[in-house]
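Reminder to self: keep the SMILES exactly as supplied, no canonicalising. Ligand is flavin mononucleotide.
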Amino acid sequence: MKVAAPTDYRELARRRLPHFLFEYIDGGSYDEQTLRRNVTDLAAIELRQRVLRDVSAIDLSTTLFGRRQALPLALGPVGLAGMNARRGEVQAARAAEAANVPFCLSTVSLCTLQEVGGAVAEPIWFQLYVIRDRAFMRELLTEAERARCAALVFTVDMPVPGSRYRDVRSGLAGAPGLSGFLRRTAQGIARPRWAWDVGIRGRPHTLGNVAPVLGQKTGLEDFFAWMRGNFDPSVSWSDLEYIRSRWRGPLIIKGILDAEDARQAVRLGADGIIVSNHGGRQLDGVPSTASTLPSIAAAVGEQITVLADGGVRSGLDIARMLALGARGVLLGRSWAYALAGAGEQGVAHMLELMRAELKIAMSLTGITRVADFSADALAR
Ligand SMILES: Cc1cc2nc3c(=O)[nH]c(=O)nc-3n(C[C@H](O)[C@H](O)[C@H](O)COP(=O)(O)O)c2cc1C
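Structure tokens returned for the bound complex:
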């Protein structure tokens, strides 16, 4: 299949991945209304066409948290991304480094902080969940320091995991024991290329950062059981205070969808927030990020760096988020599909397509620098 647009990688991923893995990436919670709204609300944002403004020199670079980067985006945290390609997080981090954009490693990655951090020269970002086992959470922070992570992304929208029915139907979740294992194995065998490259040569049983607490347990079901049992519903603003006191580098709070929460994050010393509803994977029925971003950016955009994610599928979507008030975006599914579709090269190609699209969008809206985006770029 010839990939022309970034979204083509979704179909490639569907063809290459075992069914349960594709559904894991592609799906959201409950009826997936928020997941759909993220995409449709963003796509409905109309940009203002401007003409005769000399767009011969377009600068797509920007500075986020003190670092100059080529594009106003980062690869956001995607759990289990290492299942999409062999040692997948390493491949994606390499593609991000080559494109000079940050890569954020999830707490629940397949490759460890050390493995990914050691594979690239530029320090990566690390995403942290509050984990019931606070001693282990502190160890993760120490690991992140040791790996010289450039920023800590503290995800706050998962005190409990949202119900994802596709994972139950596919056999990824709620299918313990031999029958679940056999179902997933059958789906893996149906994708022999994946089964050999990732399922066998990729050593998926290593289970990354959480391996030390899983001990001898190395199955996917063990991993999910640990995740279910270790998200902490008691997480509160005092945890943010603790993490702020503990982490000296840039601290970015991910999962803000409310201006009042954004103000509280500013009060407690966050350097940035990510307006996010976890890609429609948590509370279904909450508003899309495109619809909430303007009010949050208006509330705190002068004080901290406001980033956004959810439904960004093209360079045009990046332009839309910037016009709505974000300083940059995080990609989620877009890079996960590309990684599944064509590994490191796929992520690199997807980023190149995004770059080209953003450049054209800027040319046709008459904007020559990322910092010049504002609501003025929106059609009235
Ligand atoms: C398969 C998958 C796994 C994810 N895992 C994590 C995670 O481990 N930590 C986290 O903070 N967010 C996680 N997210 C949310 C993403 O970081 C991001 O907020 C979301 O994907 C953005 O929406 P989009 O996929 O529509 O771009 C995950 C998203 C997907 C699709």
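Points to follow up:
Residues 24-25, 38, 76-79, 106, 108, 127, 155, 254, 276, 278-279, 281, 309-312, 330-334, 336 surround flavin mononucleotide (CB under 6 Å).
The chain has a mean pLDDT of 96.
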